[in-house]
């Protein structure tokens, strides 16, 4: 079994708000992230796939195909977007880094034809990252 990781970057804005909380409670729990005008982050995404090496090609996965899937399913959908307002997964869900990792996993799951999705790692720069291995 060989593990292969592809890295890409995107920028997005968001805010944290739970409609079940009062304005004061949202502010207390989420702090400056509760500002409904939102704020932005630069994210780094690492997607790790696993599989056997194809003896004919020497590949676990065609890197061009993996890049095209990442661009279509993640980058085109999330880059320079307001997550709460433009990304369907977050119309009713708080776009934390944890939920973002799960949403990206769900967007990628089943899209690979040869390799199997192993891990999604989302870095919320500069100093936080979340790993998701498909077990919510």
CATH topology: Tetrahydropterin Synthase, Chain A
> What is the helix/strand order?
EHEHEHHEE
Beta-strand content = 25-35%
Task: Provide the CATH superfamily.
Answer: 6-pyruvoyl tetrahydropterin synthase/QueD
Any idea how many domains?
Answer: 1
Shape: elongated
Short description:
With 136 residues, the protein is an alpha+beta fold. Helix content is 29%, strand content 31%.
Please, could you describe this protein's structure?
With 136 residues, this protein is an alpha+beta fold. The chain has a single domain, classed as Tetrahydropterin Synthase, Chain A (2-Layer Sandwich). The chain has helices at residues 23-30, 63-78, 83-86, 97-108; strands at residues 2-14, 39-51, 81-82, 116-124, 128-132. It has a five-stranded mixed β-sheet with strand order 3-1-2-4-5. Strand 4 and strand 5 (128-132) form a beta hairpin. The two termini are 24 Å apart.
Keywords:
5-stranded mixed sheet, Tetrahydropterin Synthase, Chain A, 31% strand, single chain
Task: Give me the secondary-structure topology.
Layout: E1 2-14, H1 23-30, E2 39-51, H2 63-78, E3 81-82, H3 83-86, H4 97-108, E4 116-124, E5 128-132
Parallel strand pairs: 1-3
Antiparallel strand pairs: 1-2, 2-4, 4-5
């Amino acid at each position: 079994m060989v593990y292969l990781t592809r890295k890409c970057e995107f920028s997005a804005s968001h805010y944290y708000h739970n409609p079940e909380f009062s304005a004061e409670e949202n502010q207390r729990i989420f702090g400056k992230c509760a500002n409904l005008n939102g704020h932005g982050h630069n994210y780094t995404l690492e997607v790790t796939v696993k599989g056997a090496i194809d003896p004919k090609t020497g590949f676990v996965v065609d890197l061009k195909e993996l890049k095209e899937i990442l661009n279509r399913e993640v980058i085109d959908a999330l880059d320079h977007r307001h997550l709460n307002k433009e990304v369907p997964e977050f119309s009713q869900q708080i776009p934390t880094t944890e939920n973002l990792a799960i949403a990206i996993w769900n967007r990628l799951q089943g899209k690979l034809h040869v390799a199997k999705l192993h891990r999604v790692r989302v870095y919320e720069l500069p100093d936080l990252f979340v790993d998701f291995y498909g077990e919510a």
